[in-house]
Amino acid sequence: GTRHARASARDITAAFVSSRRSRGTRHVAPPPRARTHPARGLERTFVNAPRLLHFGFVFGFGLGDGAMPNPSVVLATAGYDHTVRFWEATRGVCYRTLQYADSQVNKLEITPDKRYLAAAGNPHIRLFEVNTQNLQPVTSHDGHQGNVTAVGFERDGRWMYSGSDDGTVKIWDLRAGGYQREYESRGAVTCCVLHPNGTELISGDQNGNVRVWDLTQNACSCELVPEVGTAVRSVSIAGDGSLVVAANSSGTCYVWKLQRGAKSTAHFEPLHKLQAHNAYVLKCLLSPDCRLLATTSSDKTVKLWNLDGFKLERTLEGHQRWVWDCVFSVDAAYLVTASSDTSARLWDCASGEAIRIYSGHHKAAVCCALNDSAVDA
């Protein structure tokens, strides 16, 4: 039978429900190892720029002859003005704008090979080519019945996952039409991430549940409820699979320790409860080097926490309204944020300084995507 265990705000003892069956038809095989690596990226972008000695990537811009840029770093933002904007990160210049006429854009994600950008709206997911003059989506993924609140890709780019406030998590084979799997969360899904093992998804929902979806068993294998009835706004998992963080509407981040390298997430060991903000935490994100936790909030700030003791390392101040989203550079030296003040900012994590401001949106910018990993040929 299904076992339930609840954890209150004062007691974060691990809680999970095992073997909840979900609908689905196709087995998703474990992906091969990622073929991206951090050898080149933001670390070398600003190598010749004043004050930005470490932020380095090389753009092959030939805009004078009408050619599209072919950046080694892809940076995009989107939001409530129904546009997606691509930015030349070194100069803060928008070089391409896509129209997303149907709705606002809730989330962005770039494929590992940097060929496509997924833009999640209401209720569609549209894929656009990154290095092209084509302003139209190449594919549209329809199946959700509400706002798509999460989107991502497996490490080889063969399939995509999504979550929606229609209460479902879906898996889409990019080589076929439609979605192949659907998992019902019994609550509006607010976030969803893929475990590094490639065979589990972790979602959070409006009712305060964190669920693990085992793609091999095609079932919900684990459920945690850190605070009953308090919406989980964001979930992040460490790149080595050692930690999971869930942030909620009360400003609290719950941290669990996982068995590193395990083939399945069978046990969450409570590690820490962090009162990160006195307002909503809108995004939590573990850095690629597993050293920092970034939290963005409705209090207009971004905080960087050192995972060694969960001490506050930096408070990034400058946004004038809610900060909805953030993404680290591959070397964890820089952070991009998106805010309701219509801007995105690039922060130096070491100094806490905003070294670029990306201005161009006419309404709230609520999502950003960055891929500065090198891709093998």
Q: What does the average pLDDT come to?
A: 84
Helix content: under 10%
Which geometry do the CA atoms define? globular
Please outline the major beta sheet.
Answer: 5 strands, antiparallel
Strand content: 35-45%
Strand order of the largest sheet: 1-17-16-15-14
The low-pLDDT segments are: 1-40, 43-67
Question: What features would you highlight for this structure?
Answer:
377 residues, mainly beta, 5-stranded antiparallel beta sheet, 4-stranded antiparallel beta sheet, disordered N terminus
Q: Helix and strand layout, with pairings?
A:
Elements (H helix, E strand, L loop, with lengths): L19 E2 L14 E2 L36 E6 L3 E6 L4 E7 L7 E4 L5 E5 L4 E5 L9 E3 L6 E6 L5 E6 L3 E6 L7 E4 L4 E6 L5 E6 L4 E5 L4 E6 L7 E6 L5 E6 L3 E6 L11 E7 L5 E6 L5 E6 L4 E5 L4 E6 L6 E6 L5 E6 L3 E6 L4 E7 L5 E7 L2 E2 L2
Explain what this protein looks like in three dimensions.
The structure is a single chain. The chain is mainly beta. It contains no helices and 31 strands. The protein has a five-stranded antiparallel beta sheet, with no helix packed on it. Strands 5-4-3-30 form a four-stranded antiparallel beta sheet, with no helix packed on it. Strand 28 and strand 29 form a beta hairpin.
Task: Summarize the entry for a quick read.
With 377 residues, the chain is mainly β.
